[in-house]
């Protein structure tokens, strides 16, 4: 069921060993409509992963609320799907058992969950590998399995934490297209974190630009390009440049400053 | 390659027999392979002490090792899981275990005889002590090394504490547990002879058999007994290796 997501004044800080608090998120506010594909853009160490961990329910914010369909939900584990950057398939489970894992945790009978998981594997073109263990799969296939494992449980929201960043260019672009096809069919709400401007422009309805730590939303940049998008189109490239300027200004060292320093 | 595995063994046997036949090593110091074979035959059909046949010694020792080892397995794995998974349990129990761990199992013999008497129970206790710690330590470190990613996946999918224990932590630490099991089995088997030195009421056990042969100065039977212990140890290790390879086929 597509769900809308609202983040209200999220703050997160961690206690430091030296004492005091280290703020990671500071007043993050965001509204994501039902079925929207949103990317969150920020550099490494901008608190993007922290943000997703909080939305997923693995951590609670220090302040602020998370609303699903307008209702504050504290217990989000099991309702929000998360696909992460590192391949985190359980290595002792076959492809089929990995996809069925979430259903198994929900107590679905074996025959039923395997039937459902097989259907996903077929749709993902992975049915030949259903009895394989993760070590026998390529990086791209593993990430597809991780996506299937998330989708099969029909979560309210799908969070993706740089899911393709560890893959080579060709695998990455083909998985981006694959993800868009899936989304076009399922119309799930997706929050996709990335540090790659081109990826953000190619995939999303709008881009949420984060500031460096303590992170807050700097700007929400709409991506008014028609779908299906073409990577090489002039409009795409122009938008990339435009986003890059904003993104760069919040993360790059000033050129003059660098010249002076060197 | 399969053939090569036998080359070293055969060469050793030939060297051994050669040393004995040429009279380089006196028969009071070393029995020749042929003599050991004869001794083995005598152990099997006449027994040592007479009427106490080899296969009964073997069965008795296997029972001792099996009981001590299973005891270690069924206490070591749960305790190791607890120690690995709970910081406070580790804080309380680790110093206690680290205190007892360096004490050799054999140093316990006087106490175990005092507490459990001479015989089966005492020997099982000694074997248990030898086998317990490798399983405990390996299980604990296995659990502690489970990647946060695997646990996170289960959490996000809505796993309960129980599911995380049974479906993530336990299978993820299985390689480490099995490594501990193999070390333990080796130690249990090594501790066996010493454990049987504590005295055996029923008059059975490979260690007891060797000690009796020593009293009668039957060098051939002593060495035959050692060979039997070695062969059984080899066979057990082979079986455990097979089991581990099957259980860890995903690696």
Strand content of chain A: 15-25%
Label the structural class of chain B: mainly alpha
CATH homologous superfamily grouping of the largest domain in chain A? P-loop containing nucleotide triphosphate hydrolases
What string, H for helix and E for strand, traces the elements of chain A in order? EEEHEEEHHHHEHEHEEHH
Count of strand segments of chain A: 10
Calculate Rg of chain A over CA atoms. Answer: 19 Å
Largest interface: A-B, 27 and 21 residues
User: Strands of the biggest beta sheet of chain A: in what spatial order?
Assistant: 6-7-8-3-9-10
CATH class of chain B: Mainly Alpha
What's the CATH architecture name of chain B? Orthogonal Bundle
Overall, the morphology of chain A is: globular
Tally of separate helices of chain B: 10
> Total number of helical segments of chain A?
9
Mean pLDDT of chain A: 89
Backbone CA Rg of chain B: 22 Å
Q: Catalogue the unreliable spans of chain B.
A: none
- Class of secondary structure makeup of chain A: alpha/beta
What is this structure's SSE topology?
The complex is a heterodimer of chains A (262) and B (251).
Chain A: E1 5-15, E2 21-32, E3 37-41, H1 48-56, E4 63-68, E5 71-72, E6 80-83, H2 95-99, H3 101-105, H4 110-123, H5 139-151, E7 157-161, H6 169-186, E8 189-194, H7 197-203, E9 206-210, E10 217-222, H8 234-251, H9 255-261
Parallel strand pairs in A: 3-8, 3-9, 6-7, 7-8
Antiparallel strand pairs in A: 1-2, 1-4, 4-5, 9-10
Chain B: H1 4-21, H2 33-45, H3 54-85, H4 87-100, H5 109-116, H6 120-144, H7 148-156, H8 161-197, H9 206-215, H10 219-247
Kindly describe this structure.
The complex is a heterodimer of chains A (262) and B (251). Chain A is of the alpha/beta class and 262 residues long. Chain A has helices spanning 48-56, 95-99, 101-105, 110-123, 139-151, 169-186, 197-203, 234-251, 255-261, and strands at residues 5-15, 21-32, 37-41, 63-68, 71-72, 80-83, 157-161, 189-194, 206-210, 217-222. In chain A, the strands form two sheets. In chain A, strands 6-7-8-3-9-10 form a six-stranded mixed beta sheet, with helices on both faces. Chain A has a four-stranded antiparallel beta sheet with strand order 2-1-4-5, covered by helices on one side. Chain B has a single domain, classed as MetI-like fold. Helices cover 78% and strands 0% of the residues of chain B. Chain B is built from ten helices and no strands. Chain B has helices at residues 4-21, 33-45, 54-85, 87-100, 109-116, 120-144, 148-156, 161-197, 206-215, 219-247. At the A-B interface, strand 6 and helix 3 of A face helix 7 and helix 8 of B.
């Amino acid at each position: 069921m597509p769900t809308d997501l609202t983040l209200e004044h999220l703050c997160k800080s961690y206690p430091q060993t030296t004492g005091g608090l280290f703020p990671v998120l500071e007043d993050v506010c965001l509204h994501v409509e039902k079925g929207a594909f949103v990317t969150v853009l920020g550099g490494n160490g901008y608190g993007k992963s922290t943000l997703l961990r909080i939305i997923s329910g693995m951590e609670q914010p220090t302040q602020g609320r998370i609303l699903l369909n307008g209702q504050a939900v504290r217990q989000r584990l099991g309702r929000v799907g998360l696909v992460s950057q590192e391949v985190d398939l359980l290595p002792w489970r076959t492809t089929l058992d990995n996809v069925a894992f979430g259903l198994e945790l929900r107590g679905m009978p074996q025959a039923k969950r395997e039937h459902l998981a097989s259907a996903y594997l077929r749709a993902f073109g992975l049915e030949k590998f259903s009895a394989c263990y993760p070590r026998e799969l390529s990086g791209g296939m593993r990430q597809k399995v991780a996506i299937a494992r998330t989708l099969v449980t029909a979560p309210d929201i799908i969070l993706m934490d740089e899911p393709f960043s560890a893959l080579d260019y060709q695998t990455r672009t083909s998985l981006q297209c694959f993800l868009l096809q899936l989304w076009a069919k399922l119309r799930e709400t997706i929050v996709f974190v990335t540090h790659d401007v081109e990826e953000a422009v190619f995939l999303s309805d709008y881009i949420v630009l984060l500031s460096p730590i303590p992170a807050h939303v700097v700007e929400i940049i709409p991506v008014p390009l028609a779908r299906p998008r073409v990577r090489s189109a002039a409009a795409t490239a122009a938008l990339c440049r435009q986003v890059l300027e904003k993104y760069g200004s919040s993360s790059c060292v000033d050129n003059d400053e660098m010249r002076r320093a060197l | 390659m399969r053939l090569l595995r036998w080359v070293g063994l055969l060469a050793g046997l030939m060297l051994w027999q050669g040393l004995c036949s040429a009279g380089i090593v006196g028969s009071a110091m070393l029995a020749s392979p042929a003599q050991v074979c004869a001794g083995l035959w005598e152990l099997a059909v006449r027994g040592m002490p007479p009427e106490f046949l080899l296969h009964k010694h073997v069965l008795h020792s296997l029972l001792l090792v099996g009981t001590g080892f299973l005891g270690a397995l069924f206490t070591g794995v749960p305790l190791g899981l607890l120690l690995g998974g709970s910081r406070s349990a580790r804080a309380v129990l680790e110093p206690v275990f680290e205190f007892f761990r360096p004490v050799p199992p054999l140093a316990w013999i006087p106490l175990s005889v005092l507490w459990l008497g001479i015989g089966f129970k005492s020997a099982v206790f000694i074997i248990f002590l030898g086998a317990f710690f490798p399983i405990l330590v390996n299980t604990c470190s296995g659990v502690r090394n489970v990647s946060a990613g695997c646990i996170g996946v289960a959490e996000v999918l809505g796993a309960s504490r129980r599911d995380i224990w049974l479906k993530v932590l336990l299978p993820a630490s299985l390689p480490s547990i099995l490594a501990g099991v193999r070390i333990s089995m080796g130690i249990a088997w090594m501790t066996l002879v010493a454990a049987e030195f504590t005295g055996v009421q029923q008059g059975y056990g490979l260690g007891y058999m060797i000690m009796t042969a020593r009293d009668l100065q039957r060098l051939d039977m002593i060495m035959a007994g050692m060979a039997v212990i070695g062969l059984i140890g080899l066979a057990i290790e082979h079986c455990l290796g097979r089991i581990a390879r099957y259980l860890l086929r995903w690696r």
